[in-house]
Amino acid sequence: MSKVSIIGAYNTRFGAHIDVKDMISFKKKIDTLSFYDLIVEAGQGAIADAGIDAKDIDAVWIGSCSPSRFVNQEHVAPIAVAIDPSLRFKPMTRTEAACASSSLAIYDAMYAIEAGRFRNVLVIGVEKMNLLDTPAMTTALATCSYWPEEGAKGATFPGLFAELAKAYAAHHEIPADEFRKQLAHVAALNYRNAAQNPLAHVQNGPQTAEAILSLPDSGRGSNMMVAAPLRLHDCSLVTDGAAAVVLTSTDNARATRQKVVEIAGIGHSAEYLPLSRREHKWVLEAGKDAVAKAFREAGITAASIDIAEVHDCFTIAQLLTTEALGLAEDGKSGQDYVAGRFGPDDDRVSINLSGGLKAKGHPVGATGASMHALVYKQLMEEPIGAKSSKKIPQVGVTFNVGGSGVTNAVSVLRRVK
Fold first, then answer.
1. Regarding the domain delimited by 4-134+238-245, which CATH topology (the fold level of the hierarchy) does it fall under?
2. Please, what is the angle between helix 176-194 and helix 315-324, to 10°?
């Protein structure tokens, strides 16, 4: 089976791409960078970065979570024809898997290249979330839960991940004050890294755990409780953005490139959709399965990883994904973050150099593609965001999660030339 490599990548600026005209009701929102604009910008940017012509793209995949609710648009994939007239008549497909939508778009594109059907494939991840008010946005996201017993009963994703957080702290017997400190250290690391990322949604967040812990519990500038034990600074943002990659076979990439970054292994594992069906809520069991699959295919261990972009829609998710990757012992990753591990200067592995979902932003359909794009850029020695102190990182991993630990997508990216 022929391996697949990334030969081009692009990430739009992440943020709230709206202009709010009514600061009292927040209902008069002007779209300043549309869903359609984001697709075109990301697609054109990735093709240009790959140094090929649009006519050389054989197919397009787009990952998007809920455009029908966010922007009243279904039948999304053909929008990519607007990237360049030469893409007209090319096959185009959309994938959906909640926050892992564009990781699975990448995997589907890989399968097509491996099968020999296509030579060059463009993959885009996109979401435009900020046109909705908060209740409507919360409901849209809740449709990614198990609706009959979660979303329909008022469950939200902060609430679902709060259940994972409570189970984690109870199982590992972590006192409440200590757990809050661990989560604050995770958030602070991501804020520090995002401050060096010109594309990040938040570039001026509190950069120390002490600053986060000193914030008031209520009022302006507070770190209010959202869903105990998760507070405002434990939660990712409502973000608009897109990212894209161009894929080809590694043989083709080696023949035409001075540097080559291969997707050396992938793991895709699904868990029960209802949280109630899972006995061990303190661990990502399907996540560990996806990690094992990806590592086995790539022939690596956790010790091989130089950089990782992990799913931190909430700070508890960063603890769980760090442990699922084997970068910390179960129940001990929070202690490692408190001790100062996983930053750009870590002598073993750096995590979320982009700022992660917490600070870079989390346009849900774009997140998987963004992770792949930014790890690729790090391995190509063209970092966007903080830079690893390692001279040239050789192996990077993405760990993208859809839903409450349900769809787990792990990719191993490796320099092979």
1. Peroxisomal Thiolase; Chain A, domain 1 (3.40.47)
2. 90
